[in-house]
Amino acid sequence: MSIENMHVTRRSKASLIASFAAVIILVILISAPLWAGRADMRLMAELFLYLSLATLWNLMAGYAGLVSVGQQAYVGFGGYMLFSLTMFAGLSPVVALIGVAILGGLVSIPIAALVFRLHGAYFAIGTWVIAEVFRLTFAQVSSLGGGSGTSLPISIIKSMADGRAARESLSYWLALGVMVAVILAVYLFLRSRKGLALSAIRDNELAASSLGINIWRTKFLVYVITAALTSVVGALIFLQKLRISPDAAFSVNDWTAFVIFIVVIGGIGTLEGPIIGTLVYFLMRETLADLGTTYLIALGVVAIVIMLKAPKGLWGIIRDRWDLQLFPLGYRVQTTQSKKGS
Amino acid sequence: MDWINALIQGILLGGLYALFAAGLSLIFGVMRLVNIAHGDLIVLAAYLGLSVTIMLGIHPLLAMFAVVPMMAAIGYVLQRGILNKTLGDDLLPPLLVTFGLSVIIQNVLLEVYSADPQKLDAGTLEIASISVGDLSIGVLPLLTFGIAVAIIASLHWMFYHTSLGRSFRAVSDNQDIAQLMGLNRRHIFGLAMALALAVTAVAGVMLGVRTNFDPSIGGARLIFGFEAVIIGGLGNLWGTLVGGIILGVAQTLGAQINPGWQLLAGHITFLCIIAFKPRGFFPRVSG
């Protein structure tokens, strides 16, 4: 076999099939208001938002090596900013989402400058302290209900769309749209020059910096983008709930621990992992939720077992077994005749 | 006068935080393990204290003699059974596994003891006080502070004057070479965790005597402990006491200005310190 018969490509048969399947699934999901019940739509919207959070945390921890346990800071901040922008600035909730993204990105800049002084475990704890500062600060704001929180006024909810069905469809589509945007953004980012730099940093920080990659700036960019998008996801979470309180908005279990479980169960450092992890999480939740706290105990046990026995997660097992890659990120050598991945 | 009172209360509160932090500092220093479940283990110790006091009908401080060996045994089994498998260069496995433990402990406590706030009843000790001039200082906070100083002094002595302490320092400096020199690091780590949770048992009982507790409060105790460790500098036990005192004083002075600012003042002080001293005031080993 001579060298002319070989070429390097990102595409594979599996990734082609996956992209077709993704389009079909997307069309089905967009048309959900036509075929799904209200409860199902709410559940799916929640799933989309959790998948978005998991994808974003995975970008930070799995690709940029920024293991944060304080992303609930931005979930809660996004929620509170949505409530503030609609209640005090009179913006419509949909327009307010853009403002939330900008504010989330802006507020993360000084925070990044501070927590980036910390490394490893210190960084993780530092981000958690920031989230606590956010929680305690918002609990002091009496116009937002202080420690007991506030509900979104009915006039604002009604201004979203005419009728309950239309509002629920809009809220569902927003969640779906944000999920698609987050996955696409992360995918395109990872395929870009910056993404390549990120993979290099993850694999070996010293080698990456000797190749001229500015590690600090690359990580900073990832942190700020993630913060902005996480804020939008947070805004949508509380647009669904219609009520916000400091303890719910800045819950470390809901918005960080479970998200980490999802990413690790699915497979960290892959784009497919969070998708599988989210599906497994919701499957467990919907089948075991009647057992109350037992379900959370089971979730903790599953996460621990996966981390100890299969640290690459479920997708890691699948990928090693069948050499699959649904999102064409890595490069592979193919021969022009046989078209088999090597 | 109010300010001096707040200052003294803060220093004494710092003793409790140093107790939260001493166990963390020990395991973080010896094996670089970030134990997210530490706060929940403190709460677990408080509940064990509750069960022992109710079952045996004894004073909480006496119950400590039962809770300490129980927590130490839990620590050794936990380390040998699960946590040893997570150690390595990667931060994520220990972080995730202890996050899992945290969720498990919280929900087991919820299942067994319900979400109702509980308290350990220490009788007259809770209200006893000593008058110094115009100030009156509670006996309980003073006792907590004294216990914290005694525990840190003995941990420090153990670290630098016993063969166990030498083993701890050896694995902390270089695990592989310590192993080559004939130390079984898995066993050493097990002992370190047992010791850390024995200290945690004391911390849990003192917490339970001081305030109400319920299964959800572990996270905040973990953060206080970590802040004290980081302010003081990693691997420095006396530094941890200083860190606890700084945090306690910041909180009581904050509360003196506005009751709602107590915790916020502590966190902001911590963030200000790491902005200038990212490794704390007196670091002994690198993170």
TrEMBL record, chain A:
Keywords for the protein's UniProt record, in alphabetical order: Cell membrane, Membrane, Transmembrane, Transmembrane helix
KW Isomerase (keyword) present: no
Segments crossing the lipid bilayer: 16-35, 47-66, 121-138, 170-190, 220-239, 259-283, 295-318
InterPro entries given in the database record: ABC_transp_permease, LivM-like
Molecular function terms from GO: branched-chain amino acid transmembrane transporter activity
Primary localization class, coarse: membrane
Pfam families per record: BPD_transp_2
The organism's place on the tree of life at top rank: Bacteria
Localization per Swiss-Prot or TrEMBL: Cell inner membrane
One cellular component term from this protein's GO annotations in UniProt: plasma membrane
UniProt membrane topology term: Multi-pass membrane protein
Name of the protein this chain belongs to: Branched-chain amino acid ABC transporter permease
Protein species of origin: Leucothrix arctica
Automatic annotation (TrEMBL), chain B:
Any one of the GO CC terms: plasma membrane
Lineage top rank: taxon: Bacteria
Keyword Chloroplast attributed: no
Regions crossing the membrane: 6-29, 41-58, 64-83, 95-115, 135-159, 188-209, 229-249, 261-282
Pfam families (alphabetical): BPD_transp_2 (PF02653)
GO molecular function terms noted in the UniProt entry: transmembrane transporter activity
Subcellular location: Cell inner membrane
Alphabetically ordered keywords of this record: Amino-acid transport, Cell membrane, Membrane, Transmembrane, Transmembrane helix, Transport
Alphabetical list of InterPro entries matching this protein: ABC_transp_permease, BCAA_transport_permease
Membrane topology: Multi-pass membrane protein
Gene Ontology BP annotations: amino acid transport
Similarity comment: Belongs to the binding-protein-dependent transport system permease family. LivHM subfamily.
Protein name as catalogued: Branched-chain amino acid ABC transporter permease
Organism of this sequence: Leucothrix arctica
